[in-house]
Amino acid sequence: MTDDRSLERAARAFIEVGPTQAPDRAVQAALLRVQSTSQERDLRVPWRTPHMTRFALAGAAAATIVAVILGGAYLLDGQRPPDTGASPSPTASSPVSPSPSSTGIIDSAVGYADLPGWIVFEHFGQAPDGSTTGFDPDNRMIWLVHADGSDLHELAPGDPADGKSSPDISPDGTKVVFASWTPRTLIWEADIAGGPARLISTDCDGQFQPCGEDQPAYSPDGSRIAFARSSDGLATTEIAIRDLGTGKVTILRSTSVASSSGYVAQPSWSPDGTQLVYHRVYQTPSDERATDSEVFVVGVDDAGLSKMPRPSGSWAADPDWSPTDGMIVFSTSPNRETEGWAFDNGAPRGGIWTIRPDGSGLSQACGECFGGGVAPSWTPDGRQILFWGYRSFALVNPDGSGIAHINQPALTWYGDQLGYGYAAFLAPEP
Amino acid sequence: MDRDLVEAARRNDREAFAVLVHQVSDSLYAVAQRILRDTGLAEDALQNALVLAWRRLPKLRDPDRFEAWIHRILVHACYDESRRARPWRATVRVIPMGGPTTPDGADAIADRDELDRAFRLLPIEQRAVFVLHHYLGLPLVEIAEMLEIPAGTARSRLHYAMAGLRSALSAEGEPALREGRLA
Predict the structure, then answer these.
(1) Coil, helix or strand at residue A387
(2) CA separation, residue A376 to residues A309, A396, B32, B34 (Å)
(3) Over the stretch B129-145, which tens digit does the pLDDT of each residue have?
(4) How far is the alpha carbon of B87 from chain A, nearest alpha carbon, in Å?
(5) 102-161 in B: which are within 8 Å (CB) of A?
(6) Alpha carbon of B32: minimum distance to chain A alpha carbons (Å)
(7) N or C: which end of chain A has fewer CB within 10 A?
(8) Confidence label for B180 from pLDDT (cuts 50, 70 and 90)
């Protein structure tokens, strides 16, 4: 009878025998295929995750933020209808909406090309105007363009040098607040009309030691910003509010999450400024793998934390609170393989849903959403939802009608030539 | 592994990727061949793994983990090749060897043949753990991390691989064992 050691020795000797050099033809064939193969840019629409990953790899857990754009919807202009309470008006259509077809899908590829105002969007890689050609995934920028494709330009070019992400537009439509990208994550503000960026997070080092500030959102009156804060050496993440007049920061302790178990992200204000909606991502402590995501509502007085219902079996994230009728929009991911919002080389997933803040009225705006809808935000008039529908921006009415890309031929940046433009909001021209 | 090369390749630099490929392809091919026991399938697995690695490279979080990461891709490419070849594999039968004792050199070859046949009978997942452990010399914990499986699963796969080899050799009459060469 043989013993295990003998068998193991024999097996080890056996496994040593064999080729040790790869045939050149196989290597060359692979490299030839690589020449015509594009890299996947894993358009995970919380692009902010790498912030935290790096720090987590350095020994801390994460506190990043998922999601895309927030609430650009708090924009004001004369078109905003009066608040109508909690009841949505899903059948209302925007004055700029083309008529939907019988299927609810607008066929024209140049739908909504006459949309007024600015489209403000996040972008990485090369510059979308072709002014830089070297691909750099950490070259995160915020750009503005009109729906007809004109006046494409970068917000506060090169300022700060750390790059930009997570924009939100001031209620008067004149300013953009955003977070710097890396290595420091701080909140800044810049005028849409031009000029340098101004640092808002003056009492935070942005290195997560002791604090980092990310994903800012203006309050409806523009006097405060809510944001996702990482503190105590990344031990926790929480939602916080900064008074822009005094600089005072108020931390909503009820939202605190130990970074070993996940993080909170993407706050957005209720129209009356008394509540915030945000989402929480759950992670495994060992490898930071996301395991779930849910949407929560909390009072700005740190009371009344409540979890929002969601479609069965889905992850929920990317919440944005309508500036007019109180509805909350969010996106879903149907399975964990996508880790929420990954757009994996042609296999995007996700749907857009709306819900009342009391948890009632859960309704799907679109399921397929042009191959997966993410980063939803309300238009300034609160009547439509702007989202990123795999490769380019799109609009949909809350009832699912009127769905169309926004001037897709001109407003698509997706590839290794002009980089990748993803989450966007609509801002009126001041 | 040169971190700068990995970073450059992540940023769409094909020349940097080609340099990386030349650094890792021998190891990848050797592992693939030993898992699949077939040079043609191993070449296909290598090619597919390299192309997939190129596509997915921007998603690699930590450039310092490049080697482990690309070996994981290779192992999964081997799984795919194995599944693709399964209908053919199912027709392969183990023929008991038995017979008289042969001279030493021939014995060694006979032993290898027996082990080879026994090894081919193992599930592909067990073969992968066996090769990573006994050929690359990776600890089971590291294999578990590489393959994104629990450490206990890696341990049990290795255990069952050994048990499977023993069982298959027994079924063949254990000529080598009978002669005491392995004892």
Answers:
(1) strand
(2) 18, 10, 44, 49
(3) 999 999 999 999 889 88
(4) 24
(5) 111-112, 115-116, 119, 130-131, 134-135
(6) 10
(7) N
(8) very low
Question: Minimal Cα distance from A4: which residue of B?
Answer: B162
CB pair distance less than 8 Å for B47 and A7: no
Higher pLDDT, A166 or B105: A166
Residue A426: beta bridge partners? A119
- The DSSP code for B121 is T
CB A167 within 8 A of CB A424: no
- Which element (helix H / strand E) includes A382? none
Identify all chain B residues contacting A345, using CB atoms and an 8 Å cutoff: 55
Flag whether pLDDT at A404 surpasses 50: yes
Residue A77: how many other CB atoms lie within 10 Å:
16
The number of beta carbons lying within 10 Å of the beta carbon of residue A301 is 11
What Cα–Cα distance (Å) separates residue A13 from each residue in B12, B109, B115, B167, B182?
41, 12, 10, 19, 11
Using CA atoms, how far apart are residues A318 and A278, in angstroms rounded to an integer? 8
- Amino acid letter, residue A258: A
A99 — pLDDT class (breaks 50, 70, 90)? very low
Chain A: residues touching B (Cβ < 8 Å): 1-4, 6-12, 14-23, 25-27, 29-31, 33-35, 37-42, 50, 53, 57, 134-137, 345, 416
